[in-house]
## 1
Amino acid sequence: MKNSWEKLAKLDRRVIYFLLLLVVVVPIIFPFRLKPKAMPPVEKLFNHIDTIPDDKCLVISVDYTPDTEPELHPMAIALLRHAFAQRKKVGVLCISLLGLGLAQDALATVSEEFNSRAQTNADSIISGRDFVFWGWQTPPLVPILGMGENIAKVFPLDYYGNRTDTLPIMQKIKNYNDVAILVSIAGSAVPFWYITYAQTSFGVKIGAGSTAVQAADFYPYLNSGQVTGMMSGMKGGAEYEQLVEERLGVYGRRRATDAMSSQTAAHIWIMITIIIGNIGYFVMRRRKK
Amino acid sequence: MKIRLPLILVLVTGIVGALPFIIPHGIAQSFDNEFRNSILRIIAAFSLVLGVGSIVRHHTYKIKWKRENWQYSWILLISLVITSIIGLFGGIEGTGALPTSVRGFSFDIQTIFVYMAIPLGATMFAMLSFFMASAAYRAFRARNFEATLLLIAAFIMMLGSVPLSSYIFPRLPGFAEWILTVPNTAAKRGMGFGIALGSLATSLKIILGIERGWLGGTK
Amino acid sequence: MQITKQKINIKYLVVFMLLLNCCLVYGLEPPTKVVAKDAPNDAGGNIDIFWQLSVSDPTLEGYHILRRSEPEPEPVAVGFIGRGRNSFTDEGTTDGVKYSYQVIAVQESEEAASEWSNLVSSKPQWFHTGRINVIVFTFIFTFLIVFYINRAKRGANLFVRKIAGLLAVDEAIGRATEMGKPILYVPGLTGISDVATIAAMNILGEVAKKVATCDSQLIVPNTDPIVFTVAQEVVKEAYTQAGRPDAYKSDSVYFVTDSQFAYAAAVDGIMTRERPATNFFMGYFYAEALILAETGASTGAVQIAGTDSVMQLPFFIVACDYTLMGEELYAASAYLSREPLLLGGLIGQDWGKVVIVAVLILTSVIGLLTNLQVLKLF
């Protein structure tokens, strides 16, 4: 008996890993959907984007990399769905080189969703008219600060090789003055750079999309109003997807919401392991006494 | 001179870099922009060459001296060369001079990125959840009052960050949000002050040439 | 209560009716008191225009802003702004040219123009008056640091509290030497412009000196090419200073990749293959922090971490033997080298913090007191 309590207190990490793998995989095979309820930071972001005036645009900075794609990509897709559904102008850029492919994928996915339903040219989502993909520029401070002066100068060509100053959408997007909100989605410190440099120097509103593990870092900025709204982790993405579907009636694949079942099961399993560990620990301690 | 020159450079660039913060005049701002846009970009480009040179040299040595697991170094070097050739001559989506598609099987940079880089990166990030589980199991023991408090907070956060909690305890997600917004923010701000002042002091010491550890601690 | 609300509503209704009446009887009213001023704290090229809202403001579409200048006497439209707004910044002026502005209230087909404003020209400023507070604090802080460095120079005895993580450095390096295993040093994932990376380089210099003295082996994989070149120089110089330039292997410091998780995979690989006896994680880390630290823990290495990334601190605390928290990372170089100049800077820094805390408490107390109702009696 002594041995089994000791085993409980010192479970082999491979056992923990294997069971965690099981609890993550099973809900993927047998999915169940939990309806997420939007928290205030997500709702604030949604409302701000919802009320962007016609003469301003939404800028999405795709600053995540392939490793955080499952957690952060649904956020970019949900934001694009929201903006395109309401015909808001969108500018997309990347601070990380590896974000280029992801941004292109998000734009292609969402514009395809809308274009497959479009009846006329006016209904379609067209690059250069409804959105502009500026691409990537380095080092990071160059686009972050340079966009406050002149966006077309920072990105002379868009991702597809067109001159940005000739694009119809760019006739109304000159610099941060024409940006209603810039949402930086990242698993790194890039949103902080936007807060430190772009907001402090040019006063542009900043939204953030972050991995769950990094979300707590943003709360001081959210409290001070330096971050207008934010989505944190898979849950944040799922909440935004819920708002887009519920309030705008825009339907599409909800990757973040679908993944919430696995995340829920994983959280519960981790809590169980902690409880098991503590039971073992207390029994062992009592016996030692 | 080997020591003095970098110190003079740091002093000058440190002061020149700080001045545009208080001088809004165009001369200061355009100099600052030029400094960041052109000079930093050139340095970054050259350093990348040094970096690639370093990794190539490291693995060439490994192969040359047949160090442990030297075979894997071949994989790295061959992948590096092939990816570079495809990227340089094949274009992003196979639009370059080099053909990057054989009978419908494409291997352009975008394909490599989507079907190799993304899944490999996501796999590494996914491992975090496994490590988190084992670390949480090991560390979250109610050894004393503080540890118990930490344990309770962790449970609230874990439950609060999944939609299930709003079905069981409707107020729990809001409470988890409160923990993040109030106590977490207060602690973070306190640490933030210390970190900001520490980094300001370190910057000052470097600009003034008092801290020289980054030069190898040369006196 | 209900009656009071109704009274207020009636009051608003009367005001609204009066306004509407004004508009209907007297037509559209123009904005008044249009004043133009050079925009402060900028690089020139901007003029701020202020005006008093038109009486008809609630019924307006907005305001057109016109400009004329000595070289261009014909009015030119420079912008349109919605109702309820009483200022506009003209961002397209030429410095030195005098401009005058007119604000036109617009209501469907009707327009009402204000009088032309004063003449004003834009010019760049040499000093940002809004940042005086930052300059003042920087001077106070610099003074404190220089003061304590001077004290240290004169030989004053400066007390620095013990930091367990740094006390363990010698022991950790000694253990690796005894076991004949290498020491792994990970200098964070940010560039050289990050203070955490510079602090990591400072500590690397001290660690490399000790490693050179013990004749142990050091591995420094890098994620930033510029940091890699700096790290290489730091280690080389440290070996020379320790009197062991021959023991330095240029191959021990190398660049891996700038991709976050590819780097984590590479470092995990080093830990599982080479089995270093001691791992140092110093600098700024992101989500890979736990991947690195937990892999290190599974190999049984002694782990010393230091980061100013507050979010990653809990992970390091859980998985490492010692953790330097926040500014302890910056202090580490002074602590390890025991150089009086650096220690003096450390004390100055602490006094700077005391000043900030004092100002915070004082302003908070004033803020709280001025909000108290009882103060309004005086």
Note: Residues 68-136 of chain B form one domain.
## 2
Amino acid sequence: MICSVTALIFTEPGIILTEMTNASMDVLRLCAELLAIYTIWMGLLEIVDQTGLGNKLANLLKPLIRWLFKIDDPQTSKYIALNISSNMLGLGNASTPMGIKAMQRLDDGSGVITPAMIMLLIVNATSIQLLPTTVVGLRATAGSTSPSDIIFPTLIATIITCITGVFLTKLCQKIFNKKGAEK
Amino acid sequence: MISAYIIPVLIIAILIYARVKKIETYNVFVKGAKGAFDLVLSIFPFIVTIMIMVALMRASGLMDIIISVLAPAFGVLGIPIEVSELVLLRPFTGSGSYAILNDIYETYGVDTYISRCASVIMGTSETIFYVAAVYFSQTSVKKLSYAIPLALVLSLFGTIVACLICKIL
């Protein structure tokens, strides 16, 4: 940020504040959109929660979640399960509230990041995409002859990336654990 | 288009299932929806900060310099130079990278290798800085340790895989 501002002072000092205000205004618009979207999904997710569907999903993914995050808390597992599954369906905006809640529950209050939190971030960053809805929509709008052509390549690419991500994270955790033990 | 039906079907399925389970859908929906306002309010300052940073980087030309330095390196990794701007901006901004994706479609044609490549890259990558800022905003964590570098490396790996797969298929 400092670099950018310094560079701008030499080129166009007048636009610094304008740019910052514009960005801020954009975020305000974005947040209004997010508020609308989160309201819908958090309402629906509350229903999912009350019906017990959330718990069922968490139970289904339990072995995977236990292996990835080393946790047993049913509430946290439920949030993670909902986060991962909505991400896979390309519903990034539905998964964010769940991700935040899961992060809060994984937080031990010490101010230090835990391995489970890193894993959750990586799983989100490399998420497997069953249906890249937005991209398919964009391709259709741009006049593609077969917009859904990219679903299969995306699926394969994300599966490879996700698996690599999980193993690399596990590896990093081992390396950093050793370092911690030596200290 | 099947994908257009996924979300409506999902919503109807949830509502019907709730009916079967005899849940007061209206009250429960309102209860959950209430939380959205607080959530957006509490993540707002974090998103603003990240977005101001991105806006300044683009306005100052710093972003262009970084792109021009890194583009040749991407060529070596098998990533077409045409998509390098997309790859570099993707970790910062979701809406911005969709705009670039659209540019690529218009410039090179939707069904070309470049465009297919760019489409798959969108799937394998994520707006890492944004997600990290939002996800960790409500926790006590101050330092993210190796989380961000690791996520970026994986994102690059995903991009390389995406380009390879598009070449084969």
Note: Chain B touches chain A through 85 residues (CB under 8 Å).
